Amino acid sequence: MRLQNKVAIITGGGGGIGRATALKFVEEGARVVISDIQEAKGSETVSMIKERGGDALFIKVDMSKPDEVQSLAEATMNTFGKIDILFNNAGVGSMEKKLPDVSLEEWQQVININLTGVFLGMKYVIPKMEPGSSIINTASIAGIKGQKLVSAYSASKSSVIALTKTAATEFGRKNIRVNAIAPGIIDTDIVEDWKKSEKWPILSTANALRRVGKPEEIANAVLFLASDESSFITGETLIIDGGTLNL
Ligand code: NAD
Fold first, then answer.
1. Domains in the chain, start-ordered, CATH in brackets?
2. What pLDDT is stored for residue 52 in this prediction?
């Protein structure tokens, strides 16, 4: 029960990594607020939690909309009275295209959700957090290495890492920790299209462990960063990608 008496907000909680983390957090004693733009999927996560005897609430939020993110923070306070953990995880992929073919609209859509959404989550939640709280932002290995054909995605995730380090410095004195995770390829809806491509056999084995990751394997790392077990770690980005493949 590493999260006993803790209250957590999980954005993108209707999807693979967010849902797996929500289930893990509840197993460890947390009460969770699931937010997602997809109502059906978010509510399904809440039902799964309740079937297991946990306490959860769904709030529909588009993370790119400031008023909705502000309401998420306020509704969590009204329901549970505090926020100990923010898993800022909602995100979208980019359509694969060479950089000159990316329209300004497509660029802005990805940046608005993946980067501005993470900023807004921290902007509205941090002032409500007490010392000892923990924030985990979802970046990507694409934000460290870059990834061809997904320029907006890679740039958004790289900026999440910089934002994480900045927030960690600003709030360290208050003992609010801010870390990021950088997953490699994880088996969730976001990679469904890739699975149909001829590149999949190569992509899906291009790491030291020669396989894709499972959402639960990310959830375990998020649990560590959310819990007091990581109490002297802040501003870091934990890479969870099956290891570099050195040929
Ligand atoms: P997913 O598609 O299953 O989950 C993403 C969730 O975010 C979905 O439920 C979706 O509805 C929600 N969402 C999308 N736009 C939103 C918005 N504007 N407001 C609120 N919610 C929104 O995929 P996932 O793999 O679980 O993705 C979770 C995070 O992990 C994302 O930030 C993604 O970029 C990141 N990530 C995933 C992988 C991977 O290979 N699966 C790798 C690296 C990083």
1. 7-240 (3.40.50.720)
2. 96
